Amino acid sequence: MVFFSGAQAAAAMNLTEVLDIYLKMFQGDLPDDYNSRLSAAINCLGKLGDKRAVTFLQRCADSAYWGTKVEAAQALLALGDASGWDLLEQALGDRDRDWVYYCRAGIARAVAESGDPRAVDLLLKVLETIDVDYECDAQLLEALIECLAEIGDPRSEEPIRKWQHYEFEDRDGLVEEALTKLEGRDVVPSR
Predict the structure, then answer these.
(1) Looking at the structure, do residues 25 and 73 belong to the same domain, yes or no?
(2) Global pTM?
């Protein structure tokens, strides 16, 4: 397994002792643009599951850099703190800012895995706005269908069925698989 940084390795080993190191690294002002160390730290702090990271992550969610804001909101959600929910909702609808550091498909997965009762409504709302003429929307479409099928909420069936005749670039049978789950065969229980 290859790790992007020591922060990711620590998260993988569940070393919550390293939390203090990450928090000390960024005590001063946060960078105004992309910073790979900050990005790795934010993502790992969300995975470590230590609630002591919430205050730092909330500060990151107020960063001047959009990618840092979104990553922090995802990490907060992973820790059970929905204070960044509005940022994630905005990010899911903002196809003009979808670049390497901020992927709407990943945000959709984070929202789906959160267990937040608003997740299905938000994912369905985004599904209604999909425009596959945008490359990032095509990737997001796949993630939304997968996530909604995993959650298993029956309200997802008709919105997913509308994509039954769409030709997915890499995923033949995606809609059929999702509908099979939603119709009761191999359904993952709703959260």
Answers:
(1) yes
(2) 0.78
Q: Give how many domains the chain has, as a whole number.
A: 2
Range of the domain at 65: 1-95
- Indicate if 14 and 90 belong to the same structural domain: yes
Per-residue model confidence as pLDDT tens for the chain (191 residues): 444 555 566 666 656 566 777 777 777 777 777 788 888 889 888 888 888 889 999 999 998 888 889 999 999 999 999 998 998 998 888 877 765 445 888 899 999 998 899 999 999 999 999 988 887 788 899 999 999 999 999 999 999 999 999 988 878 899 999 999 998 855 444 44
Angle between helices 66-78 and 54-61 (to 10 degrees): 150
Whether 78 and 119 map to the same domain: the answer is: no
Provide the β-strand partners of residue 86. none
Report the 10 Å Cβ neighbour count for 96: 8
C-alpha span between 135 and 191 (Å, rounded): 30
- Rounded-to-integer distance, Cα 146 and Cα 173, Å: 12
